[in-house]
């Protein structure tokens, strides 16, 4: 039909337009892809001619841009029909031979479950922006391990559990948010008979009122409250002995305590052999409050308001004297209870030093693991070099295979050209034979018409002859009938004459 002829004409024009772009291609792979696609499009069925021309238009546009993209960046499947050119029906992604990319593999460490530690200065402080969890086992006889979670010590709440005594079932829980510059230290010794630890929540101690509750004894219902405002400059130390019979809290105002660790020793009661030690660094801006429970029978906590009091404030000294007098002291010397508490604090300090040494050894072991990691990294670099060599070998093999495929495609092209020429010859011969058959059919039709005319003429002539012979036969029959009548008459006359002659002879003889 005319539509098919238009599609074939368009196909020829597109092939003519594509030819210069195909010749100008520099990459053998792109030439191979283009040639394979042209081969596939050349062998499409009749009902796919419109889609074939659409593929050629898209290929021409990509060749004009100088880059082959899908679907022409992959080898075609010659035995499968053409897929429609829609966004929802994209061809299956195969190996891209034009735009190869390195395969990204997941890097896995050779040693698993190992924490990476950055400690350039050899210090035993928490490293900022640390992204791992350190689990350090301190003592095998402890019922609970010491767990140190240090994960980007900023922005979020961090938790440190520090068990203190062998008989203690719980450790000290320290929640820290936004710890920076220098580490915050809180020493919270616990009674041996106590099953609870001290919990300190420090969340960017600035701008707003912060509250920390430190329960001391199992039966204690209240905590010690500490209000701190702008602690700066130098380390301040306040010792607050407490009495079981004391129903009132002590107030301490301090101004501008900063820069270094702040220490507050808070002895609790007679039955407790340890004091509470609080080291605070970088507490600033607004009033902070800590509730510190005193003992079982006490219904009130000690409230420490620290606001604008200098290093050698007289108010602090007066409050110390008042505390000593309320506990039966003379205001100048320490009583036995305070001495026992100080000894317990010293004992706990020694225990903490021992644990610090254990932690130091653990950190050294972690450093050894880090050195092993460095050696593993060297091995990985060597392995990476080997992988690169293998990659180059594979690329060379791929190039050789591509060259072989190129040679095979050239041979296929020659075969295709010869087949095309032979096909064209066969088509022309078939067309010639078709013309001859059509001419013979027309001649046969004319001959049949002539034969029909001759048959009709012959029939008419036969009819006329039949009519003529019938008339002649009728006339002859009439003539024969007339002659038969004449013969009858002649015979009768002859018989009559013969009878007459016989009669005459008889008469003559008689005479």
Automatic annotation (TrEMBL):
<feature type="region of interest" description="Disordered">
    <location>
        <begin position="243"/>
        <end position="276"/>
    </location>
</feature>
<keyword id="KW-0175">Coiled coil</keyword>
<feature type="coiled-coil region">
    <location>
        <begin position="335"/>
        <end position="362"/>
    </location>
</feature>
<protein>
    <submittedName>
        <fullName>DUF4485 domain-containing protein</fullName>
    </submittedName>
</protein>
<feature type="domain" description="DUF4485">
    <location>
        <begin position="7"/>
        <end position="86"/>
    </location>
</feature>
<dbReference type="Pfam" id="PF14846">
    <property type="entry name" value="DUF4485"/>
</dbReference>
<dbReference type="InterPro" id="IPR027831">
    <property type="entry name" value="DUF4485"/>
</dbReference>
């Amino acid at each position: 039909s005319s539509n098919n002829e238009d599609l074939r004409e368009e196909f020829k024009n597109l092939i003519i337009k594509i030819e210069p772009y195909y010749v100008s291609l520099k990459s053998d792979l792109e030439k191979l892809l283009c040639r394979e696609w042209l081969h596939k499009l050349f062998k499409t069925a009749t009902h796919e001619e419109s889609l074939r021309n659409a593929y050629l238009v898209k290929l021409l546009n990509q060749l004009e841009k100088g880059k082959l993209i899908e679907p022409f960046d992959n080898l075609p499947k010659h035995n499968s029909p053409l897929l429609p050119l829609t966004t929802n029906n994209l061809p299956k992604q195969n190996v891209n031979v034009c735009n190869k990319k390195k395969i990204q593999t997941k890097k896995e460490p050779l040693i698993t479950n190992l924490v990476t530690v950055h400690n350039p200065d050899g210090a035993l402080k928490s490293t900022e922006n640390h992204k791992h969890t350190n689990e350090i086992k301190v003592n095998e006889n402890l019922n609970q391990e010491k767990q140190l979670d240090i994960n980007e010590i900023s922005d979020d709440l961090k938790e440190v559990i520090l068990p203190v005594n062998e008989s203690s079932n719980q450790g000290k829980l320290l929640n820290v948010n936004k710890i920076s510059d220098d580490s915050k230290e809180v020493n919270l010794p616990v009674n041996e008979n106590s099953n609870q630890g001290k919990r300190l929540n420090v969340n960017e101690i600035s701008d707003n009122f912060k509250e920390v509750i430190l329960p001391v004894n199992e039966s204690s219902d209240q905590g010690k409250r500490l209000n701190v405002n702008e602690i700066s400059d130098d380390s301040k130390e306040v010792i607050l002995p407490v009495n079981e019979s004391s129903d009132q809290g002590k107030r301490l105002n301090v101004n501008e305590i900063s820069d270094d660790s702040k220490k507050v020793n808070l002895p609790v009661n007679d039955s407790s052999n340890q004091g509470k030690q609080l080291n605070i660094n970088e507490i600033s801006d607004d009033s902070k409050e800590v509730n510190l429970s005193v003992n079982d029978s006490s219904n009130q906590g000690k409230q420490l308001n620290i606001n604008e009091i200098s290093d050698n404030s007289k108010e602090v000294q007066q409050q110390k004297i008042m505390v000593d007098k309320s506990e039966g002291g003379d205001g100048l010397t320490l009583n036995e209870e305070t001495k026992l508490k100080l000894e317990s604090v010293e004992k706990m300090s020694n225990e903490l030093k021992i644990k610090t040494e254990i932690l130091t050894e653990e950190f050294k072991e972690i450093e050894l693991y880090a050195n092993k990691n460095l050696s593993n990294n060297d091995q990985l670099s060597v392995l990476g070099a080997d992988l690169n060599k293998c990659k180059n070998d594979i690329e060379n093999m791929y190039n050789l295979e591509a060259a072989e495929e190129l040679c095979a495609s050239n041979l296929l092209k020659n075969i295709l050209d010869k087949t095309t020429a032979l096909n064209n010859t066969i088509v022309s011969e078939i067309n010639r034979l078709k013309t001859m058959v059509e001419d013979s059919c027309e001649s046969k039709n004319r001959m049949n018409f002539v034969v029909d005319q001759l048959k009709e003429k012959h029939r008419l002539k036969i009819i006329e002859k039949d009519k003529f012979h019938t008339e002649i036969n009728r006339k002859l029959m009439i003539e024969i009938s007339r002659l038969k009548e004449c013969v009858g008459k002649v015979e009768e006359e002859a018989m009559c004459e013969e009878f007459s002659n016989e009669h005459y002879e008889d008469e003559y003889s008689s005479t």
